[in-house]
Write a structure and sequence with these properties.
mainly alpha; 3-stranded parallel sheet; 5 helices; about 10% strand; globular
């Protein structure tokens, strides 16, 4: 396995992820909207195109190819889970988002 692309989201990128969470009108749109907002900057950093659901679901885009700071990962996960409460889908979305987010970068002191 190759070294994952490491990326720290900018304020604008975190804002886009937050907007995707807030704009979702159902669990499906929450999941895919957030994943697009999460992966677009990562794919750009890797010199690849925009997020594509088909590429993601067929394994052409894999979470293990990318790595983000643990604090940002946790914030995204919590935001998605909190929003999913509206549709009583927290557990299902928590499992789905955990399996779909990039790796966590846990720097050692």
């Amino acid at each position: 396995m190759s070294t994952p692309v490491r990326h720290v989201y900018t304020h604008a990128e975190i804002t886009a992820i937050t907007q995707a969470v807030d704009a979702a009108t159902d669990p499906h749109k929450l999941m895919w909207g957030v994943l697009a907002a999460v992966y677009n900057p990562l794919l750009a950093a890797a010199g690849r195109g925009d997020f594509d659901i088909v590429e993601f679901t067929t394994g052409q885009i894999q979470p293990a190819q990318f790595c983000i700071p643990a604090g940002q990962w946790t914030a995204i996960d919590r935001a998605v889970c909190a929003r999913a409460d509206q549709w009583v889908t927290r557990v299902a979305l928590a499992l789905a988002i955990t399996m779909s987010l990039p790796l966590q970068d846990n720097p050692r002191p």
